[in-house]
Specification:
Layout (H helix, E strand, L loop, with lengths): L6 H4 L16 E4 L8 H15 L6 H7 L4 H12 L3 H15 L10 H9 L4 E4 L4 H11 L7 E3 L12 H10 L6 E5 L2 H9 L3 E4 L12 E2 L6 H8 L6
Parallel strand pairs: 1-2, 1-4, 2-3, 4-5, 5-6
Helix pairs in contact: 2-5, 4-5
Length: 237
C-alpha cells in the first residue's frame, strides 16, 4: 500500500503499458458512479444547481478536487460555500439526489457487457464511495447486483477514496492480493485510491475536467482491445 497524496509518485512500471498486456489479473475491482453509470454526472449537476440557488459557486479547481469524494466531504465544502449548517445542507442535497435517482439510470457505454464478461472469468467486486443503500439501488437498476462476488460501499470502511480502504477491502473479500488485481476507475479521487492500494489501474474518465493518473487510460469501456483482452483470460476455476 502506498501514500495516495501524490498520484504521480504511485506510478511504477506496469504491464498495462503494453496494450493489450501479456499479464492478466487474479481479480477485478470496479468503481460504480461515473464508470458504470452517469450517477456522478447527476450528482455534480445537482451540486451546481444547489450552489446557484444559494448564489454561490465553486471554482474549477475545487470542483475538480471534490469529484468522486465521499458525500460528507462534498456536503461540508458546499455548506461552507453557502454559509449553511452542514447537517441541513446535507439533508437537502440527499433528498434532492434521491429524487433524481428516481429517473431511469442508463449505463455508460460498454459497462454492463464489460462487467458480465469479467464476471464470467474472474472474481469481481465493486468498490464505491456511495453509501450502501445508494450503491445497491444503482446496481439493481442496472441489473448487475448478481454479477459481483463482493460489493463494498463507503459504509463498510473507515475512510473512503482517495484512501485505499475500499480497494483493500474489495481485494480481501475476493481473496486476492491487491498487487494481482485490476482496478477500473473514472475519477482522480478513485484513481489515487486504487494506486495507493497497489493495484494495476485502467482509468476511463467520463466527467469533464477529470485527469486521473493511471498506467492505461481508455476513452470508454467499449474499447475493442479491452474486450478482446478480457476474452483471452482463462476461465476461473
Amino acid at each position: 500500500m502506498s501514500d495516495a497524496s501524490d498520484p504521480g509518485a504511485l506510478l511504477a512500471p506496469s504491464p498495462l503499458e503494453t496494450w493489450p498486456p501479456a499479464w492478466s489479473p487474479a481479480a477485478v475491482v470496479v468503481d460504480c458512479d461515473g464508470l458504470l453509470v452517469d450517477t456522478e454526472g447527476r450528482w455534480l449537476a445537482l451540486q451546481e444547481d444547489y450552489l446557484a440557488d444559494h448564489g454561490a459557486s465553486l471554482d474549477p479547481e475545487a470542483r475538480r478536487a471534490l469529484t468522486g469524494q465521499p458525500i460528507e466531504v462534498v456536503v461540508t465544502a458546499i455548506a461552507a460555500a453557502i454559509g449553511k449548517d452542514p447537517h441541513r445542507a446535507g439533508a437537502e442535497l440527499m433528498a434532492a439526489h434521491q429524487e433524481r435517482l428516481e429517473e431511469p439510470l442508463v449505463p455508460l457505454p460498454g459497462a454492463v457487457r464489460t462487467v458480465r464478461a469479467v464476471a464470467a472469468v474472474r472474481p469481481v467486486a465493486v468498490a464505491s464511495n456511495s453509501p450502501r443503500d445508494l450503491l445497491e439501488r444503482t446496481l439493481d437498476a442496472l441489473g448487475l447486483t448478481g454479477a459481483f462476488d463482493a460489493r463494498v460501499s463507503l459504509d463498510d470502511v473507515a475512510a473512503g477514496k482517495p484512501a485505499p480502504d475500499l480497494y483493500l477491502a474489495a481485494a480481501a473479500a475476493l481473496g486476492a492480493d491487491p498487487a494481482d488485481c485490476l482496478a477500473l476507475e473514472d475519477s482522480e479521487t478513485g484513481a489515487r485510491a486504487a494506486l495507493a492500494a497497489g493495484m494495476q489501474l485502467i482509468a476511463v474518465p467520463s466527467i469533464p475536467g477529470q485527469d486521473p493518473v493511471a498506467p492505461r487510460r481508455l476513452d470508454s469501456l467499449e474499447d475493442p482491445v479491452l474486450a478482446d483482452w478480457i476474452s483471452s483470460w482463462e476461465a476461473r476455476r
